User: Fold this.
Amino acid sequence: MGLMEDARNVAREFELSSEDVNQGVKEFIRQMDEGLQETGKSLSQIPTYVTAVPNGTEKGVYLAVDLGGTNFRVCSIKLHGDTTFSLTQSKVAIPRELMVAKTSQELFAFLAKQIESFLQTHHNDHFEEYHQRRKAGEPVTDEHFFQLGFTFSFPVQQIGINKGYLIRWTKGFDIADAIGKDVCGLLQAEIDALHLPVKVAALVNDTVGTLMARSYTSPGKTGTLLGAIFGTGTNGAYVEKLHKVTKLKKMEEQGGYDDSTGNMIINTEWGSFDNQMSVLPNTPYDDALDKESNNPGIQMFEKRVSGMFLGEVLRRAILGMMKDGKTELFKDESSGTKDSNSTCTIADDSPLYEQWGIDTSFLSIAHEDQSPGYRITRQALSKHLRVDAASSEDAEAIKIIVEAIGKRSARLSAVAIGAVIIATGNLRLTAGDALGDGQKPVLEAEVVDIGVDGSLVEYYPGFEQYIREDLREIEEIGAQGEKRVRIGIAKDGSGVGAALIALVAGGRQKE
Assistant:
């Protein structure tokens, strides 16, 4: 058997049939419904207490802050009311000693000080006017306060639009006395200590922010249904009918929310879809990756879709071929005879031999490579993986496997998108439409708008195209349904998205 056939055999392990895709959609919808009824299920289906999405006509100036890791970002967003906005921001590194401070007050006092500095620099007139009113004893109303959206990228139990208890720290933070406390309350206390004209109006998940940012900036009058991240990780947030979120009534503690819209945005946390592996595809490479990860048995969907894991899946597939004594991949006799005067060598410290040694950017390079003899992939093998003098056949074999891994990621992404579209009933297709050939014109009122962000959907070659191909294979969507789906990039969910959530939470527009 030749090298190309060996590579195709490995690639076949990543194939998903139309039947697999449709079965995945049905199970995704089942787990969505299950998560809306009870807590502790595979799909968390977290209520966000955000009950409306913007339509692009909103105006005003809002603040957003983002504590996502080792940096803290402060933004002000001016909404122009015509789907456009302008953004001013500053970013500062969190001092290492504050990441492990003895008290949470030390960290949150630092964050509040950055907000104060930002206001003095970028909104000094408003800042000074507020303080003059306070000194003069004049009344201060909500109109004098900036509404702020707080993107806090750590696990929290959210019980209201601006209330959530810290479950645990990640990303190098470790401040014991913050566990179990309301992070919005901690920030507000330090803001109040500095007498700043700022109210923490909303606790923000960046995926929900992606949905909000897209809904404000999207063309047309159709509100956005879904915000989805396909990058280092993957997640989705969508607009659900409030009456379907039956677990809200069972939750011991919950904040108030505006029920007049009849909707609520749900954060699916779909990275954990089908942790029980009832329908998700599995290969020996997925299995080994999971067993050696820091969270075995968890985030099983994410481990097959997101950019953080695709390189590692490829690395394990390549090693599997190399260890197979019958396969010619990177063998001297293969490279030497097929490319004159070349002998393939792999450095002892090649990233091929290191867990997480292959970055997803390598897959993008190989997937896109159309150069003669796959020269670009061979150069990338040498530069990134220290595999020197690989043959064109070696490079082609890698490309075959890369394409299979990338396409599987996109097909699974389509399962999640398709399930949300069907479960929410937004397509409203007739039986004839679902079976149609997609030639019928699409009216604006029929459009289903989806906002996406992340390196995979933005930069991975053909990712959206593959998703669309797979949506057409879903029985309840078909070619005509896929034509109604409008997918657009929504940048900065933790900035403009957070500001828009603050707007909705504040329930008003402030010029």
User: Anything to note?
Assistant: The mean pLDDT is 91. The radius of gyration is 25 Å. The longest strand covers residues 71-80. Residues 414 and 467 are 5 Å apart (CA to CA).
